[in-house]
Specification:
Layout lengths: L1 H6 L9 H7 L4 H4 L8 H16 L5 H9 L7 H11 L35 E11 L2 E10 L5 E7 L4 H15 L4 E4 L3 H4 L1 H9 L3 E4 L9 H13 L9 H17 L11 H5 L13 H7 L10
Length: 302
């Protein structure tokens, strides 16, 4: 791993870091292996902010300061604002003043309102979330098929840049196919040419959440809550390499083994690839069904 990192030239005139990492088969997150450092006191605040925001994304800096105060933690609002900006968090509640957009970036209309999303590859969505480490943080981006909840591709990075999001889009298109519509929020990582240019090249219609509409990209917001509550918060990852391995296992479990009640207890993979669940003969009792099951190795997530 260290030998591969040494090959990458950050100031290369023609090849970006992403392209160099792809050529030598090095995960870009592994190149940025050193997480951002914060004082221990700030790390504790970040953990609380992350958990509170995951439960209630309408919390802004004022609401977050009040949340901390009720837990006996008295901090300056400017400090809360700085930490939330560093984490890429902003309240989804409507505000009088909208977020300042990147100059020259086009904002596209929301195309999913009243749309019947009834098949795989009809709509894909992408989003970014903050992932805490024991002594720092990284960002996780994922591409999901809206209908099946199948996670098509994902990547982590220590920086929030356009290149980061484009790098997760390309493998999804290469391996899985092509959606009719692609939905994101209005963040500069998704409105920049690096991301929208790929969608235009593939003639994919672009949809973006309305400002202050938390429900517009609800499927992937639910994914973040699932990943954090069922995996991240149960562990205390120290390094990006360890996190990468853990997320790789979890997304495999999420896609292929975890049934969803909203999918009639099927897994995202079964819905995305059109697989059906074998039905037991109605004449057999539950005990008879268990006794007749073939013994197969079972994957257990620890």
């Amino acid at each position: 791993m260290a030998a591969k990192r040494a090959i990458v030239e950050p100031d290369h005139r023609k090849l970006s870091i992403r392209h160099q990492c792809a050529l030598i088969e090095l995960a870009r997150a592994s190149y940025y292996h050193t997480p951002a450092q914060e004082p221990e006191e700030n790390l504790k605040l970040i953990r609380l902010i992350d958990e509170a925001y995951t439960r209630d994304p309408s919390l802004g800096s004022r609401g977050m300061r009040g949340f901390l105060k009720r837990r006996g933690i008295y901090v300056n609002r400017k400090r809360v604002q700085r930490l939330m900006r560093m984490m890429g968090l902003a309240s989804v509640a409507p505000r009088k003043k909208t977020t300042i957009r990147a100059k020259g970036h086009r904002i596209y209309p929301y195309l999913l309102r009243s749309l019947d999303i009834s098949r795989p590859d009809q709509v894909w969505a992408a989003d970014i979330t903050y992932i805490r480490l024991k002594h720092g943080h990284v960002f996780l981006v994922a591409v999901m098929d809206w209908h099946s909840r199948y996670v098509l591709s994902w990547e982590i990075s220590v920086t929030l840049d356009d290149d980061f999001c484009a790098s997760v889009l390309e493998p999804a298109l290469r391996r899985r196919g092509m959606p009719e519509i692609f939905n994101t929020d209005q963040g500069s990582q998704f409105t920049g040419h690096a991301f929208t240019g790929v969608l235009h090249d593939h003639k994919i219609r672009i949809s973006m959440d309305g400002r202050g509409r938390a429900m517009d990209n609800i499927m992937i917001e639910r994914l973040w809550r699932t990943v954090k509550y069922h995996h991240i918060y149960l562990r205390d990852y120290e390094a990006t390499e360890e996190l990468l391995a853990g997320l790789r296992d979890y997304f495999d479990y999420y896609n292929n083994e975890r049934p969803h009640s909203s999918l009639d207890d099927r897994t995202p993979a079964e819905v995305y690839f059109g697989k059906s669940i074998p039905e037991a003969p109605v004449s057999m009792s539950p005990m008879e069904q268990l006794n007749n099951m073939k013994e197969e190795p079972v994957s257990i997530l620890i």
